[in-house]
Fold this protein.
Amino acid sequence: MLKKYFNINTWLVLVVILVVELIYNFVIENYLFTDKVVFNSLADQLTMEQINSAMVGVRSNSILIYIISVIQPIVEMGLIAVCINIGTLLLRYQINFKQIFGVVVKSFLIFSLAHLPILFSLVFKGVEKLEDIKYIPQFSLAEWVGESSISPWALYPMQLINLFQLAFILLLAGGLNLVDYRGFGKWFLLTLGTYGVELAIMVMLTGFFISL
């Protein structure tokens, strides 16, 4: 089953990921950032003029948001592939960047699937306030511990440690092992030592800027 999935054309999976990202951003804009939802959420914090100004800003940049939604996952997948490729070059593994990128793309699909609960909530259950989507389980360490008891600087790292990240790492290691069989354990450790380090650096930088 896993082998058949990783034999699917990489560009087909990439197109699916980008289409899901575009749909996700379209639904967010049209179901979440409506006048009613934004007003209900911010009426006690901002004036009507400020809310209207914010809405105009969001709508005027909607095309830019869609462009970013396409570019961002491609950049993320490229950086992950580069990090893993550096690790394979250092260890002299017989696998090239194109093969690594293909596995990264097919593993990255798990993050697109993570959008589905939010899309379902917005389209079928409706939203009155921005807070209405907070009940959707993120399966993260922050959720299990309790977000109210976590310091602001630690919230993002603990949200990032979730089942989708674990599934991505497992898929990544499994897919790489299918391309160059060295044992799942070796690829799992290499993935943690490359993508895991990249993730840790990003978390530290984000936590630093949040604490400023």
Remarks:
- The mean pLDDT is 81.
- The chain has one domain: 2-211.
- Residues 2-211 form one domain.
